[in-house]
Known about the structure:
Elements: H1 18-29, E1 34-38, E2 44-50, E3 53-59, H2 66-81, E4 89-90, E5 99-101, E6 106-112, E7 117-118, H3 127-143, H4 163-170, H5 177-197, E8 203-206, E9 215-219, E10 225-230, E11 237-240, H6 241-250, H7 264-273, H8 278-305, H9 310-326, H10 331-341, E12 365-368, H11 387-395, E13 401-404, E14 425-426, E15 429-433, E16 439-440, E17 445-450, E18 454-458, E19 463-467, E20 469-471, E21 478-479, E22 484-488, E23 494-501, E24 511-512, H12 514-523, H13 540-547, H14 550-557, E25 572-576, E26 579-582, E27 587-590, H15 603-613, H16 625-637, E28 644-648, H17 651-666, E29 670-674, H18 683-687, E30 706-709, H19 725-739, E31 745-750, E32 753-754, E33 760-761, H20 766-776, E34 780-784, H21 799-802, E35 809-812, E36 823-827, H22 829-833, H23 849-864, H24 867-886, E37 892-898, E38 901-906, H25 917-929, E39 932-933, E40 935-937, E41 943-946, H26 954-970
Amino acid sequence: MNAETAGTPTTPRPNVSVQDAVAVAAALFNLGGAFKELGSQQDRNFRIDAPTGRYLLKFANPMFSYDELEVQNYAMAALAAHGVAAPVAIGSVNGFVLEQLSEAGLYLRLTSFVEGEPLTDAGYLAPEVIGELGSLCARTVLAFAALDHPGLDRTLQWDLKRADAVVDSLASYVSDEGRRRRVTDATAGAWARITEVRDQLRERPIHGDLTDDNVVCTVRLDGRLHPFGVIDLGDVLRSWLVAEIAITCSSVLHHNPTDPLSIIPAIREFHCRVPLTRPEVQAIWPLIVARGAVLAVSGEHQVAVDPTNEYAVNNLPHEWTVFDVATSVPSRVATEAILQSLGLSEPVLPPKETKPLLADLSGNYATADFSTASEALNDGAWIRPNIEDEVFASLASRDGYVVAQYGEFRLTRTTENSTQEPENFALHLEIALPRSAQLRAPLACRVLASTKSSIVLRARDYDLYLNGIKPTVGVGDKLKAGGVFAVPVRSRRVRVTAQICTDHALTPPAFTNASLANAWRSICPDPSLLLGIDSSQQDSSQEHSASKDMLARRGRVLPSVSHHYYKQPPHITRGWQSHLVDNTGRSYLDMVNNVSAVGHAHPGVADAASKQLRLLNTNSRFHYDAIVEYAERLAELAPDPLDTVLLVNSGTEAVDLALQIANAYTGHRLAVAHAEAYHGWSLGADGVSASLADNPNALATRPAWARFVSAPNSLRGIYPGMASARSYVADAAALMAGWSADGGIAAYISEPIFGNGGGIVMPDGYLAGMYELTRSYGGLCIADEIQVGMGRLGHYFWGFEQQGVVPDVVTVAKSIGNGQPLGAVITRRDIADALARQGNLFSSAGGNPVSCRIGLAVLDALNHEGLVGNAAEIGDYLHQRLIELAGRHEIIGAVHGMGLYQGVELVRSRETLEPATEEAAQVCNRLLELGIIDQPTGDRFNILKLKPPMCLTTADVDFYIDSLDHVLTYGW
Length: 972
């Protein structure tokens, strides 16, 4: 079949210049203005910016007939009638909406211009945007439901009903032999699957090219492109209904090339509006593959016949990307994933009753646990290269077996600092065999393939793959059920993998990722029954599915005010150093968890807690050494004259207690704090918290005893810049002069660096001025070091040291317990003794032996592991890379903080400083997809907060910066 009979134009675009377009527009439409040619593979399109508006003038390829062009006008009208933004055809001075240049034989049309941003200019497409694209696709199909016209029945290269013929006709234009073979083979495979269901595919009028090129978008506050309109109806035809969504999905692939299944939200939204049958869903992925093949060969053909067509030349790389991504996952697997997402998947039947492969295995084995919760992988053991061998060896016995389960997300296959999901889901059983083992055929089968250490057996319903054994039969041999076909490779113990596959056309991998796990499970079910193993134990993939209900369960028993990160949060099961791991084994770099200051699952902390729990845990009214040792260590870290420690359970309690101490010591009642600050959630701590991020009504609901001064924000404050301390202090002095007569100033409380505000450093001299002012009224100065203290700033152990002051009271928590509820107030003895006027201090768990031992272990880790120095070194490197990043991305308005407490402030304009609030939220969501946990903070929620464990490495920093750079470059 030649190109023309396949519906492929053999002529280049019409030979029309800008000057020709100007003349035609003036003669036929009385239209003039600025003309600009727009890209097209086969036509000539000109945008006209005229005094009366913007228009599009199209000169159609001579290949297309009048009927084919006329139906496009009806299609535009149908879209408009159904509320879908689309061009409108405009009549000429002759009263025609289609004109023909008699001397050239060219048809042309003038339409209105749909204003908006083309989706093709977007980089990454978020799931929500992809879903909106699918919804728009469905609305277009519905708009065309009543459309009927002779021009719909046309022979067109883009009609996926002809994809095999188009590829066959144009494959020769692919000069690279390897690529050409890949295209023809992929098309043949896809067409075989399409042929199985083609008689069940409904036909409807469709757009035929509803892709990122032909969709226009609005830009919302989140900085994303959101589809709303349809343009270029040049491929309208009658074809398979399901081809419409397949074509739309194919255009998504080059935006998200590492995630082939990113198209599922589009299919799901389409299906909600235009329900698809199971055969139609089964056709989607083969049609996507066919579309990718057609794009590739058609692009090569168009460049060959029209080498000056820059649009075709520039589009060719992403057309090949579409094909490459479409063929990166087996069609059967992708189809199963789509079916599952729509609730159309059919249950997997377990293997039929068979004889066991290993007759003596049942009940005679130990289990090698490589899951994310495995105790064998504690203390970072999962990172060691040979840990699986070590675990198998530790469980080995003389005559028994060791089994690693099917369906387990192996933590041992997880990679830190990776933007991709790990391929760690085991699609096989792994068994350590004793040397006496014999493997027997589970049922009648024949040997399909074999090597010195592997064999493939083919039964009627599945193929059985085994590796790590020595076959005793040859290719083609037939086996009866129970017949011996293999023995261990050597006399010593070896490990064998057993895997079954229900699709004879597939060679399955040993492992897959979480996104494809359930799809592959339907193709490679659990082989446990074949080996005589009880498979009733729930595998981790089922646990993964069940964990999706965890959020709903949480919502049923916890109130909505019990906040959690992310709308769809990962289910975290393990932490190690600066990383967290979810229940699928996906590793996330933790950039926000300053609670775990010395690192997640720190061995020293864990050992201290375990040892003390086995000895004693009680309340602090008993006499034991841990509370004394820990209080001594904390007091040693504080500057003179701070010498007394009061232990509590949290930062909130520490702040509340500090305020009580100030009231008791001074006899005054007023506490002065900062706007935008956060200090805790108790009645007292919340009273001095004015952060709108934590309480939108904070300023209107503060108690009478709490007073607030302006936050000395160097970027957004009323006196911006680092030389503004004197002005802020002067304003505070004027306020406090009036307040002092209204109950007296008991305390001034402040974070030395605004942690909750995004790591903002105060102007030099500010705290010195505020402390002097507060003390002049007899008040105490409280330094809230809960977030920024204990070495986190790197160059300073305490945040107040950066300001060159010594407070009267210091509150600490969070990092001092590395996640254990532990807080403390450090002050002078005479100040602490003032509490006696209000009775005894007692906190049941405050200062308990376990918490104190954990606190001591944290202090030891800070010292012995050089974590304060690391915070300085790595913090400087992080700051340097963030400043470099800000030089490339205008959205970064400022970089705040120091050490390992920093903030990246996102703005829509560096001139107006309009906060990029919605953008910051979506940037964090995109970072999560890339394996990074980050969150926005500040009253405007536009600052990316960076307060990771203090064991952060340069590799971690590079991963974070490179990923953030990618997100800011390619979208979120």
